[in-house]
Design goal:
Layout: H1 17-36, E1 42-45, H2 50-64, E2 75-80, H3 87-107, E3 111-116, H4 124-130, H5 143-163, E4 166-169, H6 178-187, E5 191-193, E6 196-198, E7 205-208, H7 216-225, H8 234-241, H9 278-286, H10 294-303, E8 323-327, E9 334-338, H11 345-365, H12 378-391, H13 398-407, H14 425-434, H15 438-455, H16 463-473, H17 478-497, H18 500-507, H19 517-525, H20 531-536
Parallel strand pairs: 1-2, 1-4, 2-3, 4-7
Antiparallel strand pairs: 5-6, 6-7, 8-9
Helix pairs in contact: 1-2, 2-7, 4-12, 10-11, 11-13, 14-15, 15-16, 17-18
C-alpha cells in the first residue's frame, strides 16, 4: 500500500467532503496494515471528547473489518480520571467506557477499556488541603504531573516492560491551537511512517496521530455521519460541546511534551490555570438542569485569587524561609521577598469545609443520576487526616470534627487504628492558651507529638534527631526568621563573590557602648543563654 506524502496530499484547509471520505478509506487501510504487521500493543488515549472519539471510531471500524482470526492484538483504551473532572464529562466518559466494554465483548473486538486514577497521595485535594499546596499557577503547576501524567505513564511503562515497545494512538490535531501545531511539527523530526513518529519523551514508544491534519468541521462531520460502534449517540456529545466558547478538549496527557489542557473546553473543574471555567459557566447558564453545579463553580472561583499571601505560611513546607529577588513594578530597582509556603492550618481547614459544603449542596440539588456525586473521596479524607496528624503534628485532629459538623455524619476512617492519640483537642486548646506566641505554640506541639509518636516504639532510635528538627523550622517569629534568612543570603552572596571584608563585618560581634562600662561588666557575669532563650529571644 502506498501513501501520499505531505506534499502530494490535498491541502486539509481546502479538502472537500469526497476527499475526506477518501482520506478515511486510506486511514482505514493504514490502520489495518499497522495493526497486522507486528505484535506491539496499541494504547489509545480516550478522553471522551470529540477528537479521541474520532480516533477510537476509526480504529474500531478498521479492526472490525478484519477477519476474526486477525484480531489477535489487544487494543488498550485508557482514560485518566483526575477525580476533579467536570462532573458532566466524567459521567459521560464513565458511561462510554461501560458501553464500550459490553460492545467489545459482544462484537468480538480485542478492545479493553480502562479507567486510570491518580494514587491517593497524588490527588488534588490531598495536595491542596492535606499538604497545603496553593491553587496551581503557571509558575507552580503541580497538578498535571500528579493527576494526569503519572497514572498514564505508569500504565505505559508497565506495557513497555511486558512487550518491549508500544504504539500510542492519540487524537491530537494541528488545527486545535498554534502551540499544538508547532509542537507536532517539531515531533515530525522523529517520523518513521505516515502519521507516526518516535516519542522523544518516552523511549520504546511510538506515537500515531491519524487525524493530525483534520479540521474541526471535519471532525464533527465524521461524528455526525458515521455511527458510533459502541452504541454512544454522538449527537449527545455535540450537545455537550454546544454553548461554550472555546473548542478544545483536554487530551490524554502522557508526558510533559503533551500539549497542555489549560485552555481546553473540558478539563478539571478546579482548574486555576485559566481565567475562567467557561465550559461550566456555559453549562450552568444554558441548561437549568445543570444549575446544581453552581457551588462547584463558586468554590473554583474562591480558589482562584491573585494574591493569597494572607492564606499561606511565610515559610516553605519544610519550615525554612526562602528568598528571591524580583523587579519592582514601575521602578528601575529590585527587592528581596520571601517565597510563601503552604496554606496555613486555618485555610486548610477552611478549604475542607468548603469542599464538603459544595458536595452537600450539589447532592441536594443534582438530578437523580448525579445524587451520589463525590467531590472528595473517603480515602482522600483519611490521607489528609494522616498528613495533618503525622506531618504537621496537629494533634487536635480537627478533620473528623469538621466532617461531622458539615455532613451531620460521624467520620469513619478506613485506616486501622487511625486517629489513636494520647493528646487531643483539649490538650491543644490548653497548650495554645499557655504559649506566648504562635511560633512557641507550634514548636511545643511538634515536640509533644514527636515524643508521642516514638512512645509506642520498642526502639526509640532517632528520637533525638526527630526532636531537634522542629527547632530548625518552628522556633523563630516571622520578623526574626526573615532577618535570619536575609543575613544568610548576604553571607552566601559574599562568599560566592569572595568578599572577605563583608563576611567579617557580618560576623563581627557588636561592640558595647563606651559610656556603659557597668552594663558591660554585668553582661559578662551573666550565665550563658539557654537553648530556648537563643531560639525565642527575650519575652516582653
Amino acid at each position: 500500500m502506498t501513501h501520499p506524502t505531505p506534499t502530494e496530499a490535498t491541502d486539509p484547509a481546502q479538502r472537500t467532503v469526497p476527499e475526506l471520505v477518501e482520506d478515511i478509506q486510506a486511514l482505514t487501510a493504514e490502520i489495518q496494515q499497522l495493526y497486522c504487521q507486528d505484535s506491539l500493543p496499541w494504547i489509545i488515549g480516550y478522553s471522551g471528547g470529540k477528537d479521541s472519539t474520532v480516533i477510537l471510531q476509526l480504529v474500531w471500524g478498521a479492526i472490525a473489518a478484519l477477519p476474526p482470526e486477525q484480531r489477535t492484538k489487544t487494543i488498550h483504551v485508557i482514560t485518566t480520571d483526575t477525580l476533579v473532572e467536570n462532573p458532566v464529562v466524567a459521567a459521560w466518559v464513565s458511561q462510554s467506557l461501560e458501553q464500550m466494554k459490553g460492545a467489545a465483548q459482544a462484537q468480538g473486538m480485542p478492545i479493553e477499556p480502562l479507567l486510570l486514577k491518580p494514587a491517593v497521595k497524588d490527588t488534588f485535594w490531598v495536595n491542596l488541603i492535606g499538604k497545603g499546596y496553593p491553587a496551581p499557577r503557571q509558575g507552580f503547576r503541580w497538578c498535571t504531573e500528579r493527576l494526569k501524567i503519572r497514572p498514564s505513564d505508569d500504565y505505559i511503562r508497565e506495557k513497555i516492560r511486558e512487550s518491549g515497545e508500544v504504539i500510542l494512538v492519540l487524537g491530537t490535531r494541528k488545527a486545535e491551537s498554534a502551540s499544538r501545531a508547532a509542537l507536532m511539527t517539531e515531533h515530525r523530526k522523529w517520523r518513521v511512517f505516515s502519521h507516526m513518529n518516535y516519542n522523544p519523551s518516552r523511549p520504546n514508544s511510538l506515537i500515531y496521530t491519524p487525524i493530525e491534519d483534520w479540521r474541526t468541521d471535519e471532525v464533527w462531520l465524521y461524528l455526525m455521519q458515521w455511527p458510533n460502534p459502541w452504541g454512544n449517540d454522538n449527537k449527545d456529545l455535540f450537545t455537550m460541546y454546544r454553548g461554550a466558547t472555546a473548542d478544545n478538549e483536554c487530551p490524554l496527557v502522557i508526558d510533559t511534551s503533551t500539549p497542555s489542557c489549560g485552555s481546553s473546553r473540558f478539563g478539571c473543574w478546579v482548574c486555576t490555570l485559566v481565567a475562567k471555567d467557561k465550559s461550566m459557566e456555559a453549562m450552568i447558564q444554558n441548561d437549568e438542569e445543570k444549575e446544581w453545579m453552581q457551588p462547584l463553580l463558586d468554590l473554583r472561583n474562591e480558589l482562584d485569587v491573585e494574591n493569597d499571601l494572607d492564606r499561606r505560611d511565610f515559610r516553605r513546607r519544610q519550615g525554612h524561609v526562602q528568598l528571591y529577588e524580583r523587579s519592582v513594578p514601575g521602578a528601575d530597582t529590585t527587592e528581596v521577598v520571601n517565597i510563601p509556603g503552604p496554606y496555613t492550618k486555618q485555610w486548610r481547614e477552611e478549604w475542607l469545609r468548603r469542599v464538603l459544603q459544595a458536595q452537600a449542596e450539589a447532592r441536594h440539588n443534582a438530578p437523580n443520576e448525579m445524587k451520589d456525586i463525590e467531590l472528595i473521596a473517603l480515602e482522600e479524607l483519611s490521607e489528609i487526616r494522616r498528613i495533618w496528624l503525622e506531618e504537621f503534628h496537629e494533634f487536635d485532629d480537627s478533620l473528623p470534627r469538621i466532617y461531622e459538623t458539615v455532613t451531620g455524619i460521624p467520620f469513619r476512617d478506613p485506616r486501622p487504628n487511625a486517629g489513636n492519640s494520647l493528646l487531643g483537642e483539649d490538650e491543644w486548646s490548653i497548650l495554645e492558651d499557655i504559649c506566648d506566641d504562635s511560633m512557641q505554640f507550634e514548636l511545643i506541639a511538634r515536640l509533644l507529638d514527636t515524643e508521642r509518636q516514638y512512645q509506642t516504639m520498642s526502639r526509640r532510635k532517632g528520637v533525638i534527631e526527630a526532636l531537634e528538627k522542629p527547632f530548625d523550622t518552628s522556633s523563630r517569629p516571622r520578623d526574626e526568621a526573615m532577618d535570619y534568612a536575609r543575613s544568610r543570603r548576604l553571607v552566601q552572596q559574599a562568599a560566592t563573590s569572595g568578599e572577605v571584608d563583608t563576611i567579617k563585618q557580618l560576623f563581627a560581634p557588636e561592640q558595647p557602648e563606651a559610656d556603659q562600662p557597668e552594663q558591660q561588666d554585668q553582661d559578662q557575669t551573666q550565665e550563658a543563654p539557654t537553648w530556648g532563650a537563643m531560639k525565642f529571644g527575650a519575652r516582653t
